[in-house]
C-alpha cells in the first residue's frame, strides 16, 4: 500500500517538474525572441539596447536609448509591486526640447478631476474644448497657451491621452507608461507612434522664435 502511494506521489512530482520545465522553456524562448526584436528595433534606428536577465519568478527588463527629432528618447520596462502583486510596465521618456515651456504641467484628466469640477475645483483652461476636457493643466503661461492653441499640438496631445492612461509632462519632459510590454515590432512601433507624433509637432527653437516674432521683417522672411 505504501509502495503504491509512494509511486503515485512520485508520479505527481514528476508531472509537476515536467510542467515547470515546459513553462520555463517557453518563457525562455519568448524572452529571447523579445530581446531579438527590441535589439533589431534599436539597431534599425541607431539606438542603444540593454537587457537585464530575470529569474524563475519574473522576467527580465529591457531598455532602449536614442534620439528622435534631435532629442533624447528612452523606452524601458520596469517591475512594479503593489502588496503581494507585481506587474511590469513599459515607460517612455522624451525630452520635448527648448521650444516647449518648462513651467507648464500636463496630465490626463482623471475621474477625480471631473468630479472636482462639479464642486468648483477646476484646473486651468486654455479655451480649447477638447484639450480642456482631456487634460489637467497647471502653470499655463502665455507662451504655453500660445503653443497649445497654435493647432500643431492639438491632435498629438489627444492621441497621447488615447494611447496612455498615465502620463505627465513636467519640466519639458514627457513620461508615459502602459501596463504591458510590446512583443512584436508592430506593437512597439504602435506604442511609440503618439510620442513620435508629438515630438514632430513641436517647433524647433528657430521656428518658435519666428512664430513669436511679429516684426515686418519676420513676416516678410
Please give the structural blueprint.
Elements: H1 2-45, E1 48-52, E2 61-68, E3 71-82, E4 85-95, E5 105-108, H2 111-118, H3 129-134, E6 135-138, H4 142-149, H5 154-163, E7 166-170, E8 173-178, H6 185-201, H7 205-212, H8 216-219
Helix pairs in contact: 5-6
Question: Would you give an account of this structure?
Answer:
Helices cover 48% and strands 25% of the residues. By secondary structure, the protein is of the alpha+beta class. The chain has one domain. The strands form two sheets. It has a six-stranded antiparallel sheet with strand order 1-2-3-4-8-7. Helix 5 (154-163) packs antiparallel against helix 6 (185-201). The longest helix is centred in the N-terminal third of the chain and has 44 residues, at 2-45. The termini are far apart.
Tell me briefly what this model is:
This protein is of the alpha+beta class.
Instruction: Report the sheet-strand fraction.
Output: 15-25%
Rounded Rg: 24 Å
**Largest sheet at a glance?**
6 strands, antiparallel
Shape: flat
Strand order, largest beta sheet? 1-2-3-4-8-7
Q: Please provide the count of β strands.
A: 8
Helix-strand pattern: HEEEEEHHEHHEEHHH
**DSSP summary: helix tally:** 8
Structural domains: how many:
1
- DSSP helix fraction: 40-55%
SS content category: alpha+beta
The N- to C-terminal Cα distance equals 98 Å
- Enumerate the spans where pLDDT stays under 50 for 5 or more consecutive residues: none
> For the residues shown, what is the average pLDDT?
83
Keywords: Membrane, Transmembrane, Transmembrane helix
Amino acid at each position: 500500500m505504501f509502495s503504491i502511494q509512494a509511486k503515485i506521489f512520485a508520479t505527481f512530482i514528476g508531472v509537476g517538474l515536467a510542467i515547470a520545465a515546459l513553462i520555463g522553456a517557453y518563457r525562455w524562448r519568448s524572452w529571447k525572441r523579445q530581446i531579438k526584436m527590441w535589439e533589431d528595433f534599436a539597431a534599425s534606428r541607431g539606438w542603444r539596447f540593454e537587457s537585464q536577465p530575470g529569474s524563475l519568478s519574473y522576467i527580465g527588463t529591457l531598455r532602449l536609448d536614442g534620439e528622435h527629432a534631435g532629442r533624447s528618447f528612452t523606452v524601458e520596462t520596469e517591475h512594479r509591486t503593489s502588496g503581494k502583486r507585481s506587474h511590469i510596465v513599459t515607460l517612455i521618456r522624451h525630452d520635448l526640447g527648448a521650444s516647449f515651456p518648462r513651467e507648464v504641467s500636463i496630465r490626463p484628466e482623471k475621474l477625480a478631476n471631473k468630479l472636482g469640477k462639479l464642486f468648483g475645483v477646476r484646473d486651468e483652461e486654455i479655451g480649447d474644448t477638447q484639450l480642456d476636457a482631456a487634460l489637467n493643466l497647471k502653470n499655463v503661461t502665455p507662451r504655453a497657451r500660445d503653443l497649445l492653441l497654435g493647432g500643431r499640438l492639438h491632435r498629438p496631445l489627444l492621441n497621447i491621452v488615447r494611447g496612455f492612461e498615465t502620463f505627465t509632462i513636467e519640466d519639458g519632459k514627457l513620461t508615459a507608461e502602459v501596463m504591458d510590454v510590446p512583443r512584436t515590432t508592430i506593437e512597439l512601433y504602435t506604442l511609440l507612434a503618439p510620442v513620435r507624433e508629438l515630438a514632430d509637432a513641436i517647433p524647433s527653437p528657430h521656428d518658435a522664435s519666428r512664430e513669436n516674432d511679429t516684426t515686418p521683417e519676420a513676416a516678410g522672411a
